[in-house]
Amino acid sequence: MIENPYYSQELHGPWQTWSAGSFELEDGGNIPDLQLAYVQHGKLNRRKDNAILIPTWYSGTSKVMEQLYIGKGRALDPAKYCIIVVNQIGSGISSSPHNTPPPWNMAKFPRVRIADDVRAQHKLLTEHFKIKSLALVVGGSMGAQQVYEWAVRYPELVRRAAPIAGYAKNTDHDFLYGEILREAITSDAGWNDGWYKDHREVHAGLRRHAKIWSVMGLCPDFFASESWRAFGCTSLQDFQVGFMEGLFTQMDPNDLLCMVWKWQRGDVSRNTGGDLRAALKRISAKTFVMPIDTDMFFTVADCKREQKLIKDSQLRIIKSGGGHFGLFGFEAEYHEQIDRHLGELLSSKVSD
Amino acid sequence: MIENPYYSQELHGPWQTWSAGSFELEDGGNIPDLQLAYVQHGKLNRRKDNAILIPTWYSGTSKVMEQLYIGKGRALDPAKYCIIVVNQIGSGISSSPHNTPPPWNMAKFPRVRIADDVRAQHKLLTEHFKIKSLALVVGGSMGAQQVYEWAVRYPELVRRAAPIAGYAKNTDHDFLYGEILREAITSDAGWNDGWYKDHREVHAGLRRHAKIWSVMGLCPDFFASESWRAFGCTSLQDFQVGFMEGLFTQMDPNDLLCMVWKWQRGDVSRNTGGDLRAALKRISAKTFVMPIDTDMFFTVADCKREQKLIKDSQLRIIKSGGGHFGLFGFEAEYHEQIDRHLGELLSSKVSD
Q1: d(Cα B286, Cα B151) in Å, to the nearest integer?
Q2: Which of A171, A215, A302 sits opposite B180 (nearest CB)?
Q3: Distance (Å) from the C-alpha of residue A215 to the closest C-alpha of chain B?
Q4: What does the CA dihedral B263, B269, B271, B272 come to, rounded to 10 degrees?
Q5: DSSP letter at A313?
Q6: Which residues in chain B touch residue A172, judged by CB atoms under 8 angstroms apart?
Q7: What letter would DSSP give residue B110?
Q8: What dotted CATH number matches A175-259?
Q9: Which of A279, B53, B103, B284 is the most exposed place for a label (fewest CB within 10 A)?
Q10: Which three-class secondary structure state does DSSP give residue B186?
């Protein structure tokens, strides 16, 4: 276990933790005492049918969802819904390489798949909250991968689904993107096969990783229009070093790579022997597929291919000048679109 | 000087070399004996007004232009034109870090700018060939950067210009792209601050660099449609390792980084005290600006912004499923478009 003040209640809390006990993993092995960190906004009604689940994205925690997506008067309104945000395994807050006791810590943390997160979340929702039906599962990026896995794996529980900027089955291009992120970190001598003593020993690799995110995570127009000003930055360097490197160098390298590995292999067709068409056919949720128009790795074209295979689905393209980082909601128009689509989805009738 | 069989007459020749003598550089200092490697296709007519200049792109040589862009019956027809392809400084064939004698070799090779290439090419064309007017300057990627510099710096010499997939002034986004390419190589311990004994000592960095090219140099649809089959590859791995790593691991790291540095800083507004509008206003050539629609770093939007500032110009968007690597001409439709646009440009009347 490594001390890292970034993953603190002060910065990302308050959160609750729930133990899923010894948790068997898709690829074999288990996490001895799987801790899920979650946050609940709003109350479960008597019929327990007003729950919304939000899984988290890469390197983000429940805090960013709370700050950017949930609020009174918004589509995800805690006055109406019981909104449960569950931090993914490897997030640094739920069980992760850096916070797991030896011998399963760091580089020895087992391989975790999107399906493991979804199965653990299912345990939390059904065993702890006694929820039998979800009004909506919504998430962005790796959150969207979990949304798809939920809708395919537990169709009877998911009444509505909103994957924002993510795929049901990851693409070859996006897999390669994960590779260059991984290599940016593992090429740092400080990485030491994952056995660094402090994440700051890997700061050069984390900085490279942050720079790759700037190139692929935003989009050319973001830089052409100097939209980094919306992040409070005063120059390109201030955005790259002050914001991007400032953000990612606080994080744990093993935690990030645990998530990268999962993200690269997100694939609902593992439920149907590799048949993506059959997997997506299982989805009974009313589904809004919401790619971001300028996203460089979760593209509209690839999202659309999947959307067409989902029965009760619509393609709702989100306009943003921020590429994938549109998810960070630095544009007022972004929130307006998200709230409009999610509001419409939530108010649409679906069979129980 | 380092032995590297990749940069041989067998693989990239036959070429001629011409010495520009001691050549002073934009950023100060000089190359003691600047060697320019060039190839001539077709003959100069009596009026010396049928010359076409092609500068080369990043990591490419005159050979790829010969194989893909020049040919009898094509727009760039050696039966009609005297086509001169000049390998850029740092290409590995003209003066470059790996083939320059000590003490100016390797990491001590001076910083070279796009404008240095263009001034050296100008010397070759006016002093050696006695050319006073160019029918066309055309090039892709870094070749396009040189085309722009030619049209701004020597407007009286350039009758027509065709920058394909490149900018007159590089963007912040593309600058960052250059940074991650550079860091992929310099993060390799074998790089040794540029003082490796054999380029193979840096193969891990060159492989990372090749993988970043796969992510940014192609485009998501290239992978979705498995267009690597057009490169003769049988799988994603065969494309990534067999083609991409196979190609880039043969090259010299210092040569590549010499070109990256130049590419990142390509900027015609250096001729006009930073005023891009004034620089592009200097262009008198009839200009076809030809971005590739799926290019992830030389985007249509950014190319269009520049095109609008050029008097006698048109935007001719090239459709390709290969992103920036559309330049490699693996699609028949690509060549058809290039030949159609360049043919129209070459047959259009311009004032001498």
Answers
A1: 10
A2: A215
A3: 6
A4: -170
A5: E
A6: 223-224, 236
A7: P
A8: 1.10.1740
A9: B103
A10: helix
| Interface contact B299, partner A, CB < 8 A | yes
Interface probe for B, chosen from A174, A180, A203, A304 (most Cβ of B below 10 Å), is A180
Determine how β-strand A16-19 pairs with β-strand A35-41. Answer: antiparallel
Alpha helical stretches, state H, A187-265: 203-217, 220-224, 236-237, 246-248, 253-264
Q: Domain B5-170+267-347 is in which class?
A: alpha beta
Q: Which amino acid is at A147?
A: V
DSSP-derived 3-state class of residue B135: strand
Spell out the CATH class of A5-169+267-347.
Answer: alpha beta
Say if residue B48's pLDDT is above 80. Answer: yes
Location of each CATH 3.40.50.1820 domain in chain B: 5-170+267-347
Residue B246 pairs with which residues in a beta bridge? none
State the CB neighbour count (10 A cutoff) for residue B138.
30
Contacts of B219 in chain A (CB under 8 A): 173
Q: Which residues contact A99 (CB under 8 A, 6 or more apart)?
A: A1, A2, A7, A92
User: Which of A49, A12, A26, A251 is closest to A130 using CA atoms?
Assistant: A49
Which residues of A form the catalytic set? 141, 295, 324
ipTM above 0.90, yes or no: yes
* A208 in B contact zone (CB under 8 Å): yes
State residue B163's pLDDT score. 98
Provide, as residue numbers in chain A, all residues whose Cβ is less than 8 Å from the Cβ of B177: 215
Q: How far is B205 from chain A (nearest CA, A)?
A: 9
Tokens (6 digits) for B210: 């090749």
Tell me, letter by letter, the H, E, C secondary structure of B223-285: HHCCHHHHHCCCCHHHHHHHHHHHHHCCCCHHHHHHHHHHHHCCEHHHHHCCCHHHHHHCCCC
Render pLDDT for A103-160 as a digit per residue (tens, 0 to 9).
999 999 999 999 999 999 999 999 999 999 999 999 999 999 999 999 999 999 999 9
C-beta neighbour count of B108 within 10 angstroms: 13
The pair of structure tokens assigned to A102 is 């030896």
Q: What is the pLDDT of residues B23-44, one digit of tens each?
A: 999 999 999 999 999 999 999 9
Q: What are B335's two structure tokens?
A: 């060549």
Is B173 a known active-site residue? no
| Token reading at A58 | 């890469």
Q: DSSP letters of A137-192?
A: EEEETHHHHHHHHHHHH-TTTBSEEEEES--SB--HHHHHHHHHHHHHHHTSGGGG
Alpha carbon of A187: minimum distance to chain B alpha carbons (Å): 7
The CATH 3.40.50.1820 portion of chain A extends over: 5-169+267-347
Contact A208/B305, CB-based, under 8 Å? no
Does A297 sit within 8 Å of B224, measured CB to CB?
no
Q: Is B295 a catalytic residue?
A: yes
Q: What are phi and psi of B190, to 5 degrees?
A: -65, -20
| Residues of chain A positioned with their CB less than 8 A from the CB of B179 | 211
- Chain B positions in Cβ-Cβ contact with residue A240 (cut-off 8 Å): 176
Q: How far is the CA of B81 from the CAs of A43, A178, B12, in angstroms? A: 78, 47, 22
